[in-house]
């Protein structure tokens, strides 16, 4: 591994942050995982521990590899200290423009001059985020997929001012993590979510209009289109709040009614039904179990 990119800070320890910290630590980087909530850091550590145990059980890594990975990983609720000697920061905090702008302004002030500031945003403009800093050439989208330790793709998004050097380093780093980077340009939703979210939204509209039930909609897309997971199950997995935020970015960015979030999605997020992370969305999810049942509201 390049010594130049050894120290990594990951901001946000939710669904994505724990996986991003995991893959960097497993591939030899020294990682500090940061969250404003100590409880999120504890959950993330427990998840990483469980996921590493699975890799040991499958004999993909040894027990020593697991211990060494955990040794390279620390957590903090204090962002400034955590990024002070970072070579790379990957921001994976809540999908809100105002929050990301604030975080990037602070990162720019606290991180060393050479440090690359990457964001895992699903849809927000990299160019807009970069404009909150004085180093737009060193700001880039590094969009991992969920679950990060398993999914191969990293969508690498160049902002308007992102330099060739920053892009080349990000592409090389992604490969070094065992991922497959794909370069795309900076338009709302990039490629992955511009295509995925309208499909998920349409599945929710189909449910809302009574075309079919939750299990039936997912079954059609699994058996008919060979999708490994139905769109409603996938929405639960991504987080319904995250889906809603992305659809709003697409709707605002393109100004076309086809991206308007389904009212059912808006209601569910308002009611705190966020999918896997809250225990209920279109399905009821039990912690530590893969078994799911259609949520009472839809059964
Ligand atoms: P999440 O809601 O699970 O976690 C977000 C975390 O950020 C929370 O723990 C929260 O406490 C923390 N946070 C909020 N403000 C913070 C701050 N100022 N400093 C540090 N931490 C802060 O969200 P997520 O699903 O992990 O999404 C994170 C990012 O990754 C978003 O930009 C999202 O669009 C993107 N993303 C999500 C998915 C997915 O499937 N969920 C996939 C790809 C990309």
Counting DSSP H or I runs of 4 or more residues, the number of helices is: 12
Largest sheet: 8 strands, mixed
The distinct bound ligands, ions and cofactors come out as: nicotinamide-adenine-dinucleotide
Shape: globular
CATH topology of the largest domain: Rossmann fold
Q: On the 0-100 scale, what is the average pLDDT?
A: 96
Please give the radius of gyration in angstroms: 19 Å
Query: Which structural class do you get from the secondary structure elements?
Result: alpha/beta
Question: What is the assigned CATH homologous superfamily of the largest domain?
Answer: NAD(P)-binding Rossmann-like Domain
Q: In the residues, how many domains can be counted? A: 2
How does CATH name the architecture of the largest domain? 3-Layer(aba) Sandwich
**What is the end-to-end distance?**
51 Å
Low-confidence residue ranges: none
Note the run of SSEs as H and E.
Answer: EHEHHEHEHEHEEHEHHHHHEE
Widest beta sheet: strand line-up: 3-2-1-4-5-6-7-8
Kindly provide the name of the CATH class of the largest domain. Alpha Beta
Q: Strand portion, in percent?
A: 15-25%
Report the strand count: 10
| Fraction of residues in helix | 40-55%
Q: Could you describe the 3D structure shown?
A:
The protein is α/β, with parallel strands linked by helices and 299 residues long. It folds into two domains: 3-185, NAD(P)-binding Rossmann-like Domain (Rossmann fold), CATH 3.40.50.720; 194-298, N-(1-d-carboxylethyl)-l-norvaline Dehydrogenase, domain 2. Helices cover 46% and strands 15% of the residues. It contains twelve helices and ten strands. The chain has helices at 15-26, 38-57, 63-71, 79-83, 97-110, 126-130, 164-176, 192-208, 214-225, 231-238, 240-254, 263-270, and strands at residues 7-11, 30-34, 73-76, 88-91, 116-119, 139-144, 153-158, 180-185, 283-285, 292-294. It has an eight-stranded mixed β-sheet with strand order 3-2-1-4-5-6-7-8, with helices on both faces. Strands 9-10 form a two-stranded antiparallel ribbon. Bound molecules: nicotinamide-adenine-dinucleotide (NAD). Nicotinamide-adenine-dinucleotide is lined by residues 11-17, 34-37, 40, 79, 92-95, 99, 103, 120-122, 143, 146, 238-239, 242, 277. Residues 11-17, 34-37, 40, 79, 92-95, 99, 103, 120-122, 143, 146, 238-239, 242, 277 line the site of nicotinamide-adenine-dinucleotide.
